[in-house]
# Entry
Amino acid sequence: MQTTTEFGYDSRIEGDVIHTRVDAALNWFRKNSIWPMPMGLACCAIELMATGASRFDISRFGMEVMRFSPRQSDVMIVAGTVTYKMAMSVKRIYDQMAEPKWVIAMGACASTGGMYRSYAVLQGVDNILPVDIYVAGCPPRPEALLDALMKLQNKVQREPLLATLKKPGPALAKA
Amino acid sequence: MSALDLASKLKEKFGELLAGPTEFRGEVTLVVADAERIAAVSEFAKQELGFNYLVDVSSIDNYGEDPRWTVVYHLYGIEHKQYLRLITSVSEEKSELPTVTGVWRTADWHEREIYDMMGIRFRGHPDLRRIIMWEGYPYFPLRKDFPLAGKPSEAPDVAFSKPAPLEGGPFVTSPGGKDAIEREPRVKTFGD
# Structure
């Protein structure tokens, strides 16, 4: 009895073929599984929690996996007022994150110090970290944070990944 | 027993040391002339008069006047539900008074906060460290001569601080202004 064996591609089983570049494919994997490090420091953290809850459903973007360990996270969402007392700890947690890593400054305080023109408050987290996205608001609505995350996805998608893999990242380049 | 009666009892015991009692809007205040005796007055108020709860200790910077520091103790009795306020003054040269942690243990953190923000020391305090600012911060930021923008400081591996930019601000009150428009907090540029 003769049997036939199909080799290779079977469109009935595997669907359509997509041709792409390695860069684009890797970036696509990356941008849809950006795990946040929730750096909740003040009231913005409440909105961050709302973003993670069911009404706004951050898991649509593959970002629902809030990691409280910097080793496992990709984007640090600095949500709240960064005091000078906290600044070194924020920096240290950022340094512990594995590359690739991104930073979102959520809200007025994290972006510029906000209303705290004061002896105790760092005037913007970009004094110590390289910030990718700034979110306006005091605090920003969850929609604004989701918009920032989508902008971050666009940014990740555009990254020349293979070229950057060959160079040291920002943490190593600074040293 | 009303707060005024309790204050009178305290006054009977200590006599000339205490001025008052004065009453304002139902709140009774006694002024302790010698800050060195504050712990003894507190001890009596707690043990004999039932003021078993120290609500708060706060401090005032009367910058430009002598004595510069005023320390205010808010007392409350949980059984008799009466409040009493004790006020005492400390000169800038001395900047030190006895602790009341031996009377109310809760005074520990209140006194640490005053030390942190104003730089008034409490003799006999079991653990007089900064409580809000970090160890190694060299200034006392709630003093009137400390600029709102802050001053630069550096404590390696602990924290740093820089003056905040104050263009178009901050919101400054002008006490003694001739009308509410002048007195109210509003944006002022420095130098005028």
